[in-house]
From TrEMBL:
Residues 17-208 form the Electron transfer flavoprotein alpha/beta-subunit N-terminal domain. This is Electron transfer flavoprotein subunit alpha/FixB family protein. GO terms for biological process: fatty acid beta-oxidation using acyl-CoA dehydrogenase. InterPro entries: DHS-like_NAD/FAD-binding_dom (IPR029035), ETF_a/b_N (IPR014730), ETF_a/FixB (IPR001308), ETF_alpha_N (IPR033947), ETF_asu_C (IPR014731), ETF_asu_C_CS (IPR018206), Rossmann-like_a/b/a_fold (IPR014729). Keywords: Electron transport, FAD, Flavoprotein, Transport. It comes from Pyrobaculum aerophilum.
Length: 346
């Protein structure tokens, strides 16, 4: 019988809140652990449901980390063909696990891969997916997952449900939810599933990270205490290199606006804002960034904001704790020089 999004499923068959745990080499990405914390909260609201995790081609050590961060059960998909990522095969394997364990809710980190995978998995499972949620709640009457995300360019919030189909799927960007405390006394079940997938149609030969090379030795924007971010006002890739120099001196890292990423000056992984990362640094220095609402959404939790911009009326200036009116080409080299002087005096 053909299945469509409008064909209701038997909701009673679906239990628990599960999370896709994305790997970064031989460790789990923080976003999966952040989602485990949220999953526990949602599971409690569902009357103590089980919290599960799925890792593709992961290790028992990774599964244990997931348990320490809130999972009750972790499935490791064991298939040597899945060591390197390709979306179709990963989605097929993950969908098979979801079909077997039938979680009520399935959450995915909104990374570049996660967003791609989420769409493939939802399509395979013929269920809905809400991308880039900024909040997740349980409707106490219906038990539906309320998938809340910004809309109309970030000016309003939409609440979306998947009332007919299961699992209810949502992706959430890194840094939106806090990472739960690691508790090595937690115990859980680790299951290895040998999942067969049809012969691969694509194979990864090599990965070339062009812009990533420049920032490879700097921490990710989500975890740094100091973030120096550049926007279109930098005018060139050279301008971004100046920010890298300043960030290194401050033991911080670099971020970028969407426009700086689009210009090809900074890698996508450094983008801050509605469709980039949400950050909570102690100090955020915005250079050549106007402060569009979609950018501000990513820095609302920053403790102190310094903006450098020749336009005193740019929105970022109103949102900054310290607004420096001027050309970054004059201000940043001076700042670098002063910091070096102070360092040398010590
Ligand atoms: C659905 C949607 C999602 C989006 N998601 C994001 C997102 O995640 N992140 C994001 O950043 N944007 C996002 N945007 C884009 C956003 O609306 C803005 O277009 C973008 O943030 C502007 O980038 P910017 O501040 O670098 O460039 P601009 O708005 O062009 O600002 C450049 C600034 O540089 C200043 N400037 C010029 N010369 C100098 C100089 N010499 N020294 C110092 N300053 C100088 C200018 O005065 C200006 O204020 C999104 C938009 C939409 C519609």
């Amino acid at each position: 019988m053909p299945c469509s999004l409008w064909t209701p499923v038997n909701k009673e068959e679906y239990k628990g809140v599960w999370v896709y745990l994305e790997r970064a080499g031989d460790r789990l990405k923080d976003v999966g652990l952040e989602l485990l914390g949220k999953a526990r909260e949602l599971a409690q609201k569902l009357g103590g449901a089980e919290v599960g995790g799925v890792i593709v081609a992961g290790s028992e050590e990774m599964a244990r980390e997931a348990i320490y961060h809130g999972a009750d059960k972790v499935v490791i998909i064991d298939n040597p063909e899945l060591k390197s990522y390709t979306p179709v095969e990963y989605a097929e394997a993950i969908a098979k696990v979801v079909q077997k364990y039938k979680p009520e809710i399935f959450l995915i980190g909104g990374t570049k891969r996660g967003r791609e995978l989420a769409a493939y998995i939802a399509n395979t499972l013929t269920t809905g997916i809400t991308a880039d949620c900024t909040a997740l709640e349980i409707d106490p009457k219906t038990r539906d997952l309320l998938q809340i995300r910004p809309t109309f360019g970030g000016t309003q919030l939409a609440t979306i449900r998947t009332p007919q189909r299961r699992p209810q799927m949502a992706s959430v960007r890194p840094g939106v939810f806090p990472k739960p405390q690691r508790d090595p006394s937690r115990t859980g079940e680790i299951i290895t599933e040998k999942i067969e997938i049809p012969k691969r149609r694509t194979r990864l030969i090599s990965v070339e990270k062009r812009l990533e090379k420049d920032v490879a030795d700097l921490p990710p924007v989500e975890s740094a205490d100091i973030v120096v971010a550049g926007g279109r006002g930098l005018g060139s890739a050279e301008g971004f290199k100046l920010l890298i120099e300043l960030a290194k001196l401050l033991n911080g890292t670099v971020g970028a606006s969407l426009m700086a990423v689009r210009a090809g000056w900074a890698p996508h992984t450094r983008q801050i804002g509605q469709t980039g990362k949400t950050i909570r640094p102690k100090l955020y220095i915005a250079v050549g960034i106007s402060g569009a609402i979609q950018h501000l959404m990513g820095i609302m939790e920053a403790k102190t904001i310094i903006a450098i911009n020749p336009d005193p009326h740019a929105p970022i200036m109103e949102n900054a704790d310290y607004a420096v009116v001027g050309d970054y080409k004059q201000i940043i080299p001076l700042l670098i020089e002063e910091i070096r002087k102070i360092r040398n005096q010590r």
